[in-house]
Amino acid sequence: MAPIGVDNALPIPPVYVDQGDTLVLTVFNSLDVPVTIHAHGLLQKGTAHMDGAAQISQCGIPPRESFTYRILADKSGTYWLHAHDKALVADGLRAPFIVHDAKCPYEYDEDVLIYLEDWYQSASADTIEGVTKPDSGGPRSPIYTYGLINGYNGNDTEPIKFVPGKRYRIRVLSMSTTEWWKFSISGHKLKVIEADGVLSTPHMVDGLDVAPGQRYSAIVTAHNSDEFNFIYNCTLYSDFMPLAKGVNPRYYTGVIEYRAGAPTKQHVIGDDSQLTWDDDTKMSALNGPAELPVDRQILLSARGFNTADNRSLRVLGTLPYADQQVPTLFTAMTTGNLAMDPRVYSPQAQVSVIPHMQNVEVMIKNPQGQPHPFHFHATQVQVIERGPLLPNELEPSTTGFNVTVPDVSKISIRRSQGKPMLRDTVNVPSYEYVKLRFSGAEPAIIYTHCHIAAHMAAGLAVTFVVAPDVMQRTQIIPEELTQMCLRQGLKASGNAVGNQGLNFTGLPPVPVKAPLPSA
């Protein structure tokens, strides 16, 4: 594959700004396909056109053209920038984006960034083709990935230097597109103070279990002696693929260096079930609201959708997600009163229209043997409750891999206490449900998708269009973005296919589900 860099640099270096700054990011597209850049975790209040999601908030930047994003860093925290057109993020077009606090309520002496990636030997285009073209369905052999730590091979990590008695804010960011990471430091506790850009009350853990797209900050206090160095552990794993010695999981380690040449206390990696891991139902948003009252409930379920033309697609609502021909934001902004009618959007955009100020509870069920990290654009959701599905709700895995179905009676119900934690990327484990709530106070296009690249390409997504009537009065679509669509032969106004009203001439047919096999 040909990795994607920026200004002849790969890995792409992290971007650091201060809270209140505006990042002016001019993207010149030297690729041969369109591209967009999404600031993962930034809410884009009042500037939905800067969200950088292709065919949702804009048309892609064409080859040999440029576009300038203006991203207001109004929230401090740990974020990242990445491609959001096709699966180009998996080819390397991604970088950490750190917004330093104007005044952090937690004291620490130094800030340390650890960003983690999975890396495939095949190009993302092959991933998309493998799930979207006809006759691509059916069981596949597992594809295992390699791990990168701070942009380089996980076996070549640099030491992290500690000074006795000092406090370190360790930011752990997963820019993976498929696999999970576990992070821990032998002989040290982690005091979690942030998840996904939201400060939390302190949450003491032994380690962090980080899904694709998630981020954490934890304060680690160094020991008072420099007698020993210690090991930090980064484990790349996928519990929905078969275990394979040396590849699943892959173990990477680095050194916490108190003193050059000091002996290193070894840590044997084995069963980590006795360790305490992060749990967002046990975290509280430091300055967040109490549980929102519920005006509307929406039930979603992550399932496979095998089509009559033998594609293994995925569904979160009723149909596999597919992009509109007109960006969803443009439809919401140009169809007047019809923007409040879900029918004006494409059936496969899977749109729920949320009236202004309505509070929504979303329950996501995962009845199959693959966890899903769902990212919510343009909002943060309260994590209200987690728990097991009923035995009769469980479904066979559609991956073609052997996945053991657990005894769900042993999975407990975990409910948030106090002020629920706010997140933008929420993991939904296999055979469990999660209840989430968000407010409709801010007009927005809340594109919600699994952050596993292959699942996103296969359609595991829905859209919440919040207060489009208010959005039409308070936001604009720059003419530059309209012309960018038109130069590519794409429409920039009207319903999902660029027509007026509910005339959907030209709408592609929706996929047809394959018939169930005969008994």
Describe the structure.
By secondary structure, the protein is mainly β. 7% of the residues lie in helices and 34% in strands. It contains 5 helices and 31 strands. It has helices spanning 124-132, 328-334, 453-457, 468-474, 479-487, and strands at residues 15-18, 22-28, 37-40, 66-72, 77-83, 94-100, 110-119, 146-149, 152-153, 160-161, 167-174, 180-185, 190-195, 198-205, 207-210, 215-221, 230-237, 250-257, 296-301, 303-306, 312-315, 351-354, 359-366, 372-376, 381-388, 414-415, 422-423, 425-428, 432-439, 444-450, 461-466. The strands form 7 sheets. It has a 7-stranded mixed sheet, with no helix packed on it. Strands 19, 23, 25, 26, 27 and 29 form a 6-stranded mixed sheet that branches. A 5-stranded mixed sheet has the order 10-18-17-12-15, with no helix packed on it. It is globular, with a radius of gyration of 23 Å. The two termini are 44 Å apart. The model has no long low-confidence stretch (mean pLDDT 93).
